[in-house]
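Holo prediction. Input below; ligand is magnesium ion.
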Amino acid sequence: MKTTWWKAEEPGAVEQAGKLLREGGLVAIPTETVYGLAANAWDSTAVEGIFAAKGRPQDNPLIIHIARESQVQELAAAVPALAQKLFQAFWPGPLTVVLPKSSRVPSQVSGNLPTVAVRFPSHPVAQAVIQAAGVPLAAPSANRSGRPSPTSAQHVWEDLSGRIAGILDGGSCPVGVESTVVSLAQDTPRLLRPGSITVEQLRAVIGEVDVDPAVLSPLQKETAASSPGMKYQHYAPLARVILVEGPYAAYRDFVNSHAGPGVAALCYEGEQEGLRTDTVCFGREQDASGQARALFDALRQLDARGIRIAYARCPRQEGIGLAVYNRLLRAAGFEVIHIG
Ligand code: TXA
Ligand code: MG
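Structure of the complex:
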């Protein structure tokens, strides 16, 4: 299949992408978090195409993207009062809410779960293309399954060219990590995936929020995943990533004593000088938002440079830092070394 690359600002690009989507095609679209691989959510054949293009396990459900808050009524069987509060506070924006699913949503979208995940993105191109399509869009991140999520059209091209109809290029994604996912499908709201909307922000609006244990630890074999995505190895570059927890001086000494061919430091900006290895940076130490923006591109750079082992600085687990830490932990397959 020939994949078309449109610049979002090209005249007619958004309309063409919208038409293709409405008619069952697969198009990668920019959002404020990461690029999504979109299909018409009502079209189960188109949705099956997403799983095939990504190589995604069938039981991992998709998020449905809307461009008007009222569209949630067609997707969810019930919209509780807490959901309304979340929409008012955070939509449009990088928050996905899991609700009981309406019978209209194809089972392919929800991985046969009784729930559906809904998000109203704030990115102007995402909103324009959803409107142009005239239908809600099911869209996972637009990477090959298991690869780091794409934060630029180039990343999408690397993973999916020849497998999808088009890519709508809206530049780099301003947030850089996927949306916060909160489930309202049980008694107490539950954070399933941390993102740039923090658990502290959620609690300020809806009160008690549990943090799913899978946010910070590997899923135990006996337990069912609340969010099926959490059971798969995610965000993983080919390189083996090892998180190194401790102060900079101890990190530097550790990395320098482990230097060698194919070894790299995944460090903060400004730390390259002291390190006698290849380095790839992901933002500044005090800037968790900058780390979020840079992380997935940094993971892809490791592979582009043929790195075998990357020793990564360990982000602070506060605010959006929790999301950065969560993604890095998964990239590292939960391999963490404590030093200093
Ligand atoms: O920022 C984002 O959320 C991006 C952009 C494109 O919107 N999308 C994204 O989709 O990250 P994906 O498919 O890569 O991640 C969706 C996550 C998965 O971990 C999935 O298991 C979970 O949301 N999820 C989807 N539907 C669910 C449901 N009904 N119940 C629980 N978890 C669900
Ligand atoms: Mg994904």
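The chain has a mean pLDDT of 95. That is the main takeaway for now.
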